[in-house]
Each structure stands twice: as structure tokens, then as C-alpha cells.
Write a structure and sequence with these properties.
Elements (H helix, E strand, L loop, with lengths): L4 H14 L3 H8 L7 H14 L5 H8 L3 E8 L9 H14 L4 E8 L4 H13 L4 E4 L4 H13 L4 E4 L10 E4 L2 H13 L7 E7 L7 H17 L5 E6 L4 H14 L3 E6 L4 H10 L6 E5 L3 H9 L4 E4 L2 H16 L8 E3 L3 E3 L10
Parallel strand pairs: 1-2, 1-3, 3-4, 4-5, 5-11, 6-7, 6-8, 8-9, 9-10
Antiparallel strand pairs: 10-12
Helix pairs in contact: 1-2, 1-3, 5-13, 8-9
């Protein structure tokens, strides 16, 4: 591969000072065999003295190392297209690093099925990847999977949600607790002292969706720490079908007519918005997550007041690039990268590029 003028000059100067050939310097730079330890030490000392940094692209291409990254994330479903966004970011990164011999394989699971998670995880391990990116759900099952990954000493990146206490290369996603606190602050500015607030968790397996519970804890802690007297009611909807969610929500709203604000802890806020719209309840402030088409449609009509967005495409992209940088020793990787917490309204959604 043709080197840049600056790099060629550097390699020439190193070879001159060490009294060796340019080829010998190149072998040391790319850690190839055929150079004695004494010569290697001499050349490395000169490299350090000159503060020489070889062209990273040339180094990667010269290494010719083939690596396989495994991606374990939920599948896009009829209920939500949220996971299409991280997937798009992952694919963008995969396209960029393909030239360096990196292949990316995808393993999808159903958010409503633990068995599908186990099947995807087992298939992933059978194919012996060099690194893993995962979006964890089903806490106990994910922790068991992570244990197997760490036993194999594979670099592991979490996106969208981390697993508390579980080591990995890095976590890239929202600060879940602070995200919940932000939602509480938005609602607190728009309600009266006598109003009640409903937090809604829509999940078939809430105990294993700890990221929803951490948002809820952050939400409640804001009101507790601020001395706010509004009563907060929690509603768990463990059947994500519209008809079932409608029945459960209407029962709660009938029993608690003072509810004037609803906080939905995930992207299924459009389900609640659809129920409120169907029953012409337009006096309830509604806050939820993610820049999805269904959510934007209800944001435009005013049924959803605020959307909190976490840049899922960027999460996917940065997750793959973290593995790439780590394995090719391009740069260090931070233990966590928290996404900005974006607040989207019907007035600014057209300009959002998150």
C-alpha cells in the first residue's frame, strides 16, 4: 500500500537512525516476524523518541486480520419499529469498517419471548465471534449470557440499556435514571397541586425490563426530592395488545378521575395516545419515548405532549465503532457514553436529526 509523504519520510528517518532497511522498520511497526529482539528494541526506541505515529489505515490494511462482530438485539416488530434505528446505525458502521476485514453477523430475538433470546444467544456463541454488541433484555437470562461471553474473554458492548454490576467494554445509551427525572420535571411544570400522575410500564415481562423500572425510579425521585405533593400511581400493562391495554387504562382513569398526566416509560407511548384519542380524552398531558412515526403522528395532533429521545441510531453506530477501535487498538474506549436527552415537541420535530 502506498504510504503518505509524511509517513514515508518518518520511516526513512527511523531506518537511517537505526541503520536498517525500510522493510525492517515496516516489520517492526506492523509487529511481523523476522526481526531480532535487539533490533526491535532499537527501532521502537527511535519511534518513541521521534513520537512517530504510523498511518492507522495503512496499519489496519497491512494486518489483514479478519474479525467477526456479533450483534444481539431485539427484532423489529409490528408493535414498535424502534429497533430499526439502532440497526441502521449498526449497518452504517459495518459498511465503514468492512474494508478492514470486519464482518458483522446479526442475531435477533423477540422481546416477548425468552426462548427466542436463548435461541439467538446459543446460535451466536456457536459461531465463535471475536466481539459482541448486545441490547440486553430479560435480566437474568442476559446476565447468564454475559457470563459466558466474559468466560470466553470477548469484548462486549451494551447499547440502549446496561446490566447493573456486569462488566463490559462499554455502555452506550441513555442515563436511565436521569431520563426519568427529566420526564418528571416536564410534567411538574404543567400540572396543578391536586392533579394525580400515572406512570405506565408496558411490558410482557416487567421484572426483566429493569431499564423501565430505573426510569420510573428516577421519575418518582424527582417528586420526592422536590417536596411535590402530587400523588403518583403506577400501572403495569403486561399485555401489549391494544384492546387489553385499552381495558386496563380506562379502568384506571375511571377509578382515578384526577389523573391529568401520564408518563410512559418506553416507546409504546403511542398505544396510550391511541386509547386517549379514541375516547376523546384531550386534557391529559402525555410524555413518552422515541422518535418513531406512530409517536410523531400523535405528537403532531397534540395527543402526545413531549417525546424524550435517546438517539438510537447513534447508539448502534458508536457501539460497533467502540469494538472496532478496541480490537484494532486505534484508541481507548470510555466505560460509558451517555446519549444526550432530547426533548421533542410538535414545534421542533421537523428539525430533529437524532
Amino acid at each position: 500500500m502506498k504510504k503518505t509523504g509524511t509517513e514515508l519520510t518518518g520511516v526513512k528517518e527511523i531506518a537511517r537512525r537505526a541503520n536498517v532497511s525500510i522493510g525492517t522498520v515496516d516489520r517492526v511497526i506492523h509487529n511481523r516476524k523476522g526481526v531480532s529482539e535487539d533490533t526491535k528494541k532499537k527501532i521502537n526506541a527511535i519511534i518513541e523518541e521521534m513520537n512517530f505515529r504510523p498511518n492507522k489505515m495503512a496499519s489496519l490494511l497491512a494486518s489483514r486480520k479478519i474479525l467477526n462482530f456479533a450483534i444481539l438485539i431485539p427484532a423489529v416488530s409490528d408493535e414498535t419499529d424502534y429497533w430499526s434505528y439502532p440497526l441502521n446505525g449498526i449497518k452504517q458502521a459495518a459498511d465503514e469498517i468492512r474494508q478492514f476485514g470486519v464482518t458483522v453477523q446479526y442475531y435477533f430475538y423477540d422481546l416477548n419471548s425468552k426462548s427466542s433470546f436463548h435461541k439467538a444467544a446459543d446460535e451466536l456463541l456457536k459461531n465463535e465471534p471475536d466481539a459482541v454488541l448486545m441490547a440486553p433484555s430479560f435480566v437474568e437470562d442476559s446476565m447468564a449470557f454475559v457470563k459466558r461471553i466474559l468466560e470466553l474473554e470477548l469484548p462486549l458492548v451494551f447499547i440502549n440499556s446496561d446490566l447493573p454490576g456486569q462488566p463490559g467494554l462499554t455502555y452506550i445509551g441513555p442515563e436511565l435514571y436521569q431520563s426519568g427525572m427529566l420526564a418528571a420535571q416536564l410534567i411538574s411544570l404543567a400540572i396543578q397541586k391536586q392533579d394525580k400522575i400515572l406512570t405506565v410500564n408496558i411490558s410482557t415481562d416487567l421484572e426483566n425490563n429493569h431499564h423501565l423500572l430505573r426510569k420510573e425510579r428516577g421519575f418518582k425521585s424527582f417528586f420526592e426530592s422536590s417536596g411535590n405533593t402530587n400523588r403518583i400511581i403506577t400501572l403495569h400493562i403486561n399485555d401489549t395488545k391494544f384492546d387489553t391495554a385499552e381495558k386496563v387504562l380506562l379502568h384506571e382513569l375511571t377509578a382515578e378521575p384526577a389523573i391529568k398526566a401520564i408518563f410512559v416509560t418506553n416507546s409504546r407511548v403511542n398505544v396510550i395516545a391511541g386509547i386517549l384519542a379514541k375516547h376523546k380524552q384531550t386534557d391529559i398531558l402525555l410524555v413518552g419515548y422515541d422518535f418513531l412515526k406512530k409517536n410523531i403522528d400523535y405528537l403532531i395532533t397534540g395527543q402526545i405532549t413531549f417525546l424524550i429521545c435517546q438517539r438510537p441510531k447513534e447508539q448502534g453506530y458508536l457501539g460497533v465503532m467502540a469494538l472496532y477501535k478496541h480490537l484494532f487498538k486505534i484508541s481507548g474506549v470510555e466505560k460509558s457514553t451517555y446519549m444526550p436527552i432530547d426533548i421533542i415537541t410538535k414545534e421542533n420535530y421537523r428539525f430533529y436529526n437524532g
